[in-house]
Amino acid sequence: MPEPGQFHTNMKYTAILLALLTAPTLSQAQKFVESRDQATGWYVPVKFRVTTEGTDAKRVDVAVYKDNELLHEIKRAKSKFTLNLDLDNTYTVILSKEGYRPKSVFMNTRVPDQEIRYSEYACNMNLEAADKFAHSDPFYMDFPGAIVRWDDEAHGFMPRMDYLTDIQSKIAMLQAQMAPQ
Predict the structure, then answer these.
(1) Which of 26, 66, 92, 157 could be a cystine partner for 121, CB 3.0 to 4.6 Å?
(2) Are the C-beta atoms of residues 145 and 167 closer than 8 Å to each other?
């Protein structure tokens, strides 16, 4: 027969032992995989924020292309939304709104095999009034606003700065041509 208070002590030790035995299970459930081949269905979260002429776009239409094939369309999406793009693919996301020039972003979601942790990619896009470029050569207007891919130095997804600089200078040149003389 247990001594007075011994039962309470045994229950305390039992509770501590139970907590210790279940703790590894709980932490394993939250543990990230140790290598990419252990996971399926990995994706890159891309957080979009769309503005029109610098203010909240309210609603936009979104078309998602995977390897140049239409994958999904979202009509009247909120101006802030997230797309989860599968790893190791190429996507083009086109954002449009009536009265505004559509813009696109090209994204290569390949991540180096040794990378098992990476951040979401924040993509801010500003749509401009369609009539702003009504009399300009549409050639550069069809190019993506950004080309995004993995950057080893940043350990994350980044736009190709050489491309971004080039396309922005071309668009600025078109705007300068449209400015009243």
Answers:
(1) 157
(2) yes
CA distances from 59 to 17, 35, 76, 82, 131 (A): 54, 39, 5, 14, 19
H-helix or E-strand spanning residue 86: strand 80-86
Q: What are the residue ranges spanned by the domains of the chain?
A: 41-178
CATH class for domain 41-178? Answer: mainly beta
Residue 103: alpha-carbon gap to chain centroid: 16
How far is residue 10 from each of residues 16, 20, 27, 119, measured CA to CA in Å? 10, 15, 26, 46
Enter the pTM of the model. 0.70
Q: Could you report the per-residue pLDDT of 109-168, keeping only the tens digit for each?
A: 998 888 878 889 999 998 988 887 666 666 666 777 788 999 999 889 988 877 666 666
Distance, CA of 29 to CA of 69 (rounded, Å): 36
**What is the C-alpha to C-alpha distance for residues 85 and 89, in angstroms, rounded to an integer?**
8
pLDDT digit string (tens) for 72-107?
Answer: 999 998 999 999 999 999 999 999 999 998 999 999
Residues whose CB is less than 8 angstroms from the CB of residue 118 and which lie 6 or more positions away in sequence, other chains included: 44, 111, 155, 156, 157
- What six digits make up the tokens of 149? 């891919």
Closest to 84 (Cα-Cα) out of 102, 72, 97, 100: 72
More confident residue, 37 or 55: 55
